[in-house]
Amino acid sequence: NGAGKSTLSRLISTRERPTAGTVHLGHKVNLAFFSQESSENLNYDNSVWEEISAESSSMTSGERRNLLGAFLFSGDAIYKSISILSGGEKSRLALAKILMQESNFLILDEPTNHLDIITKELFQRALLKYSGTILIVSHDRFFLDNLITRVIEIRDGRIYDYPGNYSYFIEKRAQLLAETDDRDLYIKKAEQPKQKAKTFDKLRKKKEAEERNRIYRKNKYILDKLKSVEEKIKVLEGNKADVESQLCDPTVLKDSGKVQNLLIDLKKNNQELSILTKTHKQLIFSLSKDSPLTS
After folding, report:
1. What is the pTM of this model?
2. What are the ABC transporter domain coordinates in residue numbering (predicted)?
3. Which in 83, 143, 176, 229 has the greatest CB count within 10 A?
């Protein structure tokens, strides 16, 4: 956090100007950018279909309908006003608009923040079919793991390149940090008489074993806790969708008492969901740090 990942993505996308140096995109690069604010930039006076139809694209009317269907907008749902869409529906529409653009370079800045599980899965499926290059800034390990083929870590003002997915990055980063510790220890020991070399070798092997055990215990604890938190989030998001659906039912809206109870349930559900979402982010962040997680 705070290393400049989002700033870098905004510089590459030309949404911000660099204070020094220049940014140049390659020949014939067509860039599209998605961030948490993309759903806020929708025209709330439009219907879903009007918003999609207004987007410049070579897609036919049928192809646009198919794209909306892939993001769960079908039948009369495409004529709903954007102003009455739920947060998840607005996010799905914003994602559909991004994928309509004829781009070959897609920049996603924290794309899964505020997305429900269903929308996240739909988005991931769509990205797997994307033929261009994708640059993703995210702390969401499980979203990243099935998508990415390269990790760029920004640490201490430097860039570290890992040619693999997120799991590969975690493994290699732990190895590199362990090797750095061993190298420092080796330099210190090399200054001592050679007869102490065997002692150093034993210490090194012991340190390697301890490091492997520590990393295994730490990651297992975090992954177990992540699984539990994600299961709870899934239940709460299901509850939220159910309550929001009831609040759109004209029959329910006639019963003010029931509406009041539903709003109370929704508020309590959202509070619990917010707490668990923060916990989830902390766990994901802890998984990428070389320090024990405190509970």
Report:
1. 0.55
2. 1-113
3. 143
